[in-house]
Amino acid sequence: MTLSTPPLPLTMAKHGSASGSGIEAGAPIIQVENLSKIYGSGFQALKEVNLTIRRGEIFALLGPNGAGKTTLISVICGLVNATAGNVRVDGFDNVSAYREARERIGLVPQELTNEAFTTVWDTVSFSRGLFGKPSDPTHIENVLRALTLWEKRDNRLLELSGGMKRRVLIAKALSHQPQVLFLDEPTAGVDVELRREMWEVVRGLRDQGVTIILTTHYIEEAEEMADRIGVIRRGELVLVENKATLMQQLGRKELTLHLDTPLDGVPPALAGHDLVLAEEGHALVYTYDVTRQDEGTGIAGLLADLEATGIRVKDLHTRQSSLEEIFVNLVRESA
Predict the structure, then answer these.
(1) d(CA 204, CA 238)
(2) Does residue 193 contact residue 138 with C-beta atoms inside 8 Å?
(3) What is the CA radius of gyration of the chain?
(4) Sign of dihedral through CA atoms 174, 176, 179, 180?
(5) Quick one: which of 194, 84, 112, 94 has its CA closest to 148?
(6) Which helix (H) or strand (E) holds 211?
(7) Helices 323-334 and 243-250, axial angle in degrees (round to 10)
(8) Is the peptide bond before 268 cis (omega within 30 degrees of 0)?
(9) Would you give the DSSP letter of residue 14?
(10) C-alpha closest to that of 230 among 331, 140, 92
């Protein structure tokens, strides 16, 4: 699939901003302040969440089931009332200026809730009308073409595959030309090939000015696409960081030393280096924290001690922790 022929037009509506920020890239477009949600049962789904989403970024919200991801999206979109705190979308309060805030948002829900007997064209056009937008067949056509739905425009939704139905949900969310697109588990239940095609669609939207916020269970999805990542656990945001910074600051590296001669065990002289014997004695694995700049990585001392013990190293390589490992560690530490 490609987005280059034909291109998707700029889907961000030409709204003015209540805060006067215009459409400056990187400026805040969503601001969440001290947001809490307590349900009637007493369950607290969100706990004083503070979050700023920048215009034009892809922001990935990660967290285990029940962490509060969908609740947070629902409150921002005005579908669920907050117990405390406030949300502004492009400067508009999503309660006192609900209409202005909501028309700037496109929401792609997790569930497939399309009307089975409606055609693709009709359901997307109808969604545009729900926001009081005048008919714009050219825009609807461009959206359908960009999502490779144009050839299916006259098909009823019950005739489509699951992946095509999910694209229809995105088309409906883009029908009124929102500035912000929320994707709640956008690739849940689709195969790997379609998932990568969906990633391409999302990148194309971001490149044309749409701010993307997605929740996902797929760590590789966030690692592949996101500019920034937030981790939510039990209703609390435990971390919000640029992806590159997160990988650099929280990641750990492994140094694997491949040996000329296999060992039966780690020599006592090297016990202070926290080494693990691997590959049936043919390798030593040393894990170090790249953030400990004051103490250094300890690699120089390790290599010196190896030489002193007469252990010869024929090759070595390093491996950076994946985002999945970082995420698991963060959730474990905040439990």
Answers:
(1) 30
(2) no
(3) 25
(4) negative
(5) 194
(6) strand 211-216
(7) 70
(8) no
(9) -
(10) 331
Can you spell out the DSSP letters for 99-114? HHHHTTEEEE-SS---
Half-sphere exposure for 185 (CA within 13 Å, toward CB): 13
Distance in angstroms (rounded) separating the CA atoms of residues 103 and 100: 6
- Local structure of 126: helix, strand or coil: helix
- Tens digits of per-residue pLDDT, 133-185? 999 999 999 999 988 899 999 999 989 887 788 889 989 999 999 999 999 88
Phi first, then psi: give them for residue 272, nearest 5 degrees.
Answer: -75, -5
Q: For the chain, what's the residue count?
A: 335
Taking alpha carbons only, the member of 316, 251, 306 closest to residue 273 is 306
Q: From residue 260, give the alpha-carbon distance in Å to each of 264, 273, 296, 301, 314.
A: 13, 20, 27, 20, 6
86-124: per-residue pLDDT in tens?
Answer: 999 999 999 999 999 999 999 988 776 657 789 999 999
Helical H segments across the chain, by residue range: 69-76, 98-102, 120-130, 137-146, 162-174, 192-207, 219-225, 243-250, 299-309, 323-334
> Residue 232: beta bridge partners?
237
Nearest to 56, CA basis, from 115, 100, 10, 95: 10
Q: Would you tell me how many other CB atoms lie within 10 Å of the CB of residue 49?
A: 25
Instruction: Kindly state the helix (H) or strand (E) to which residue 252 belongs, with its residue range.
Output: strand 252-259
CA end-to-end distance (rounded Å), the chain = 41
pTM of the model: 0.72
